[in-house]
Design a protein that fits this description.
With 779 residues, the protein is of the alpha+beta class. Helix content is 46%, strand content 19%. Strands 10, 11, 12, 13, 14, 15, 16 and 17 form an eight-stranded antiparallel beta sheet that branches. Helix 9 crosses helix 13.
């Protein structure tokens, strides 16, 4: 986000000059409001200038800009995902730069705009690229003058400028796009229809409320004699059709689940139609105005009837209908008066009404669709609360960081459902929410080790399922929870600190950051093994995606000697019917099991009706999403670790479930204890910025070194000065073969394809200079 980057630079300068104190979260919360006002001001000014470039007076152009800038999409983006609002900055710049190519054959503005847009945000650059294609096609279908460049020349200039822009942006765009494509997101399983009229863009849409004046102007037949109005009106009508197409929403979202984030483009075309229409209103007959008003009232009546079938609370619906109808009434009266009087004062009042009605609409929208929806919960009190970052939590974190220094220890802690807690509270954690992180981490969680995250959802990972082996392997040596959850602490963790509401447990069986291995196990051989067996393989040696003759003893599945008791339910043939409010089955365990250690429960569970539901296994609770959720992973095989007890209770709410493939494994942690005992001495290492260095004297003929650093394109390894390949070890982590004797190891990280991207950026800048010189010569 270039706008946020500019904001950060400005704040940094103010802090450097000691004009402001060092900013905290509360500063940024207030700064976001100021930044949003500045951004919207820029959008309004630039849009006014662009609409003016279509030979419109400044007042009409500003009215069109108000329709665009005061669209609810801007406020929706600015509140929920602040950097999303940047997308609206680029549309007027893009239109201006395209028009410069079409009218004058000047590509300089397009290259500058497109380059910055690609650097700014690859996702919305993709959305705006679709808009560029649509815009060009409509400009070719509806040319505005005879002095425009031939279409072939326009296309060549746009394509060449686009390629140059891509090269200029490469150093930023390529790593970001690689991060997106290297993330794993399950394909959307639900059917995506071509059209679906389940949204009302005249009354209650959460994405766009078209102004009544735009609807009135659309029915003015004489307006279509003006080429500019016809262009904006037809473009708007096409975009309205796309709004009602979930398939189009999927296309705008990279052919994933339908997401309605692009409607600001429709606001821009509607703003253009309104701006042009204002200049034509003086010339229209009173009869045509009355006819247009009647047609508009009919359409609003039709959409009002359709509104009754949409899922919105009746109290909100009635207020919303009355509000929109009041705006409609005032608008049609204002249009009638303007066309009747045709004086400057009436037009001034109409344009003032456009601005005022836009402000009213976005404020009402903010109330029912944003503030009442969730934003009212966000306050300074919330930012200090346990749900986000309380002082009590931060004090515990700081004590751990002070004790551990720079040992790269991770802390397994996450505030309620907030995966980015490690970023907020500034510690090395085990959770993240993002759409661009390493897909191998997700595969590690989802498939390889089947780590339950206590909540099913895509684009995130969270905690380690309280599994002690994983905690030790990944250096998550501290575990923080609310006191009521202390019984779920991983095996081998002991209480070392507590506060009024929280407990801190520390690992007594830690493993070093740098581990070596003599035994190599094959991923292929372990495909049929349980996740517990795979944990043991990582503790005993290293798991690689290659052939190996080393075999691992597999743990016994004890489900055959385990009794099953129905509780408020009927169970048989993989089908569980829960008749009580909460029910399920109990696994009655063989009394010969030892009293220490854990059980690992494997099971497949799915609700037959496709409903979301919570699942409890003893004290452990996790949730599963309903089938229509766009955040559903589609993974129904779960592995739950539970401390040793006489029975294991599996509970779900009333309903019918598919429950099968139940397996039961005992874990006595002998492999972890052995690995921890052998790993007392760790080589010294130094990690500064993007370089990790260490020396290892391989006196015991170790074959591999493994680091709990996610395997990632961009790392480069040299051992004793020689470039050495890096292996994807233990499914998702960094490993490499060792040499005999002294190993001087240097690991350096650069963003993926950094050198290529940097070269492309330099080449793009040089190409732009040469191309623009040639374009100026040919004009």
């Amino acid at each position: 986000s270039l706008f946020f980057f500019f904001t950060v630079c400005l704040v940094g300068l103010l802090e450097l000059l000691q004009i402001i104190s060092p900013p905290d979260i509360f500063f940024w919360a207030h700064a976001a409001i100021v930044a949003s006002i500045v951004r919207l001001s820029v959008i309004l000014l630039v849009s006014t200038f662009v609409y003016q470039s279509f030979n419109l007076p400044v007042t009409a152009a500003f009215s069109g800009a108000a329709v665009y800038g005061l669209s609810i999409m801007y406020f929706r983006h600015a509140v929920f995902w602040e950097f999303f609002a940047d997308a609206m900055l680029w549309v007027p710049f893009l239109v201006f730069s395209i028009e410069k190519i079409i009218r004058e054959g000047r590509p300089v503005f397009f290259i500058a705009t497109f380059s910055l847009m690609l650097i700014n945000n690859f996702y919305f650059a993709y959305v705006n690229l679709i808009f560029v294609i649509i815009y060009l096609l409509f400009r070719w279908l509806l040319p505005l003058s005879k002095q425009e460049l031939p279409k072939k020349k326009q296309l060549l200039l746009v394509v060449k400028s686009g390629l140059i822009s891509f090269c200029i942006s490469a150093v930023s765009f390529i790593p970001a796009a690689y991060g997106f494509f290297n993330n794993e997101r399950p394909s959307y399983q639900q059917e995506i229809p071509l059209f679906s009229f389940d949204d009302n863009l005249l009354f209650s849409s959460r994405f766009i409320i078209l102004p009544a004046l735009f609807s009135v102007f659309l029915f003015m037949r004489s307006f279509y004699k003006n080429r500019v109005f016809a262009f904006f009106a037809c473009l708007s009508f096409f975009l309205v059709l796309l709004h009602f197409s979930p398939l189009a929403a999927s296309a705008f979202n990279g052919f994933s689940a339908p997401q309605y984030r692009w409607e600001y483009i429709l606001s821009f075309s509607a703003g253009g139609a309104v701006a042009v229409g204002l200049t034509l209103l003086r010339k229209v007959s009173l009869y045509e105005v009355i006819t247009s008003i009647i047609a508009t009232l009919f359409v609003y009546g039709l959409f009002g009837v359709l509104q009754q079938k949409l899922p919105i609370a009746s109290g909100q619906l009635n207020k919303l209908l009355m509000f929109i109808l009041l705006l409609l009434l005032i608008t049609v009266v204002a249009v009638f008066v303007c066309s009747w009087k045709k004086n400057q004062q009436a037009f001034f009042l109409l344009q003032a009404w456009i601005l005022l009605s836009g402000v009213l609409v976005v404020n009402v929208y903010q109330k029912y669709a944003v503030y009442d929806y969730s934003v009212h919960q966000v306050s300074s009190a919330f930012l200090k609360s346990d749900a986000y970052n309380s002082k009590e939590q931060q004090q515990l974190i700081e004590k751990i960081k002070k004790q551990e220094g720079n040992s790269l220890v991770r802390i397994d802690w996450m505030a309620k459902l907030r995966n980015n807690t490690p970023i907020v509270q500034q510690f090395n954690g085990t959770s993240l929410y993002s759409s661009i992180f390493n897909q191998e981490l997700l595969f590690f969680y989802w498939h390889d080790l089947q780590v339950d995250m206590s909540r099913e959802s895509v684009s995130r990972y969270a905690t380690l399922g309280n599994r002690a082996n994983l905690h030790s392997l990944l250096r998550a040596n501290y575990w923080i929870r609310e006191k009521k959850k202390s019984s779920q602490a991983p095996y081998g963790f002991v209480l070392v600190d507590e506060s009024e509401h929280y407990v801190v447990y520390k690992n007594t069986l830690p493993l070093p950051f740098i581990r070596t291995a003599k035994h190599v196990f094959s991923e292929t051989d372990l495909k049929s093994a349980s996740p517990l067996d795979r944990e043991h393989a990582m503790l005993t040696g290293v798991v690689l995606n290659r052939k190996s003759s080393t075999k691992l003893p597999k743990e016994k599945n004890h489900i055959g000697t385990t009794g099953i008791k129905e509780v408020g339910a009927f169970y048989g043939n993989g089908r569980l019917v829960v008749t009580e409010k909460i029910g399920g089955i109990d696994l009655i365990l063989d009394p010969s099991f030892s009293k220490t250690g854990d059980f690992y429960i494997h099971l497949f569970v799915k609700n037959f009706e496709g409903k979301g539901f919570p699942l409890k296994v003893n004290e452990y609770r996790t949730t599963r999403k309903h089938n229509k959720s766009i955040y559903k992973t589609g993974l129904n095989n779960l592995v739950i670790r539970v401390p040793k007890k006489e029975k294991i209770s599996i509970r779900v709410p009333k309903g019918t479930y598919e429950l099968k493939n139940i397996e039961l494994y005992e874990e006595n942690y002998q492999e972890l204890k052995t690995a921890s005992e052998k790993s007392k001495n760790e080589p010294l290492f130094k990690w500064k910025k993007n370089v990790l260095t260490l020396s290892f004297n391989n006196q015991t003929k170790e074959k591999y070194m493994v680091l709990p650093i996610p395997y990632e394109k961009g790392w480069e390894l040299r051992i004793n000065g020689d470039k050495t390949p890096i292996d994807q070890a233990n499914y998702a982590w960094t490993g490499f073969a060792l040499k005999k004797g002294i190993n001087h190891i240097q690991l350096v990280y650069y963003p993926p394809y950094f050198r290529l991207a940097f070269f492309l950026t330099l080449a793009g800048i040089v190409s732009a200079i040469l191309f623009l010189k040639k374009a100026d010569t040919n004009r």
